Amino acid sequence: MIVKVLELEKDKARLVIQGEGHTFMNALVEEILTDPDVDVAKYTIEFQFSDPELLVTTKNAKKNPLTVIKKACKRISSNCDDLLKNLSKQK
Fold it and tell me: What sequence ranges are listed for the domain DNA-directed RNA polymerase RBP11-like dimerisation (predicted)?
C-alpha cells in the first residue's frame, strides 16, 4: 500500500491511499470516527478507477491526525486477527 501525503497540518491530514477501494476506505473511516477527538473523517474517489483521497481533521489540534489514522488501522487489524482466531476454533 502506497500512501501519499497531500496536506499535513496540526489538525488536518489529506492522503491518497493507492490501490484501495470502498471496502477498506469505509472500514477505515468508520474506525477513525470512533475517536472522540476526530472532527471529520471522509474519503472521496473522484473517478471509478482513481485512488481514494482521505481527509481527517481533529478537534482543536488535540491529536495528530496521522496518529489517529495509524491507531485506527491497528484496531482494524486486531479485529481481523480476532475474527480469524474465532473462525479457526470453529473447525
Answer: 13-85
Residues 6+ apart with CB under 8 A from 69: 13, 15, 28, 32, 54, 56
Q: What does pTM read for this prediction?
A: 0.88
Complete domains list, the chain, with CATH: 3-89 (3.30.1360.10)
Q: Is 54 exposed, middle or buried (0-12, 13-18, 19+ CB in 10 A)?
A: buried
Grid cell for residue 20: 484501495
Grid cell digits, residue 71: 491507531
Distance between CA atoms of residues 88 and 48, nearest Å: 36
Decide: residue 60, CB within 10 A, 0-12 exposed, 13-18 middle, 19+ buried: exposed
62 closest CA partner among 39, 37, 32: 37
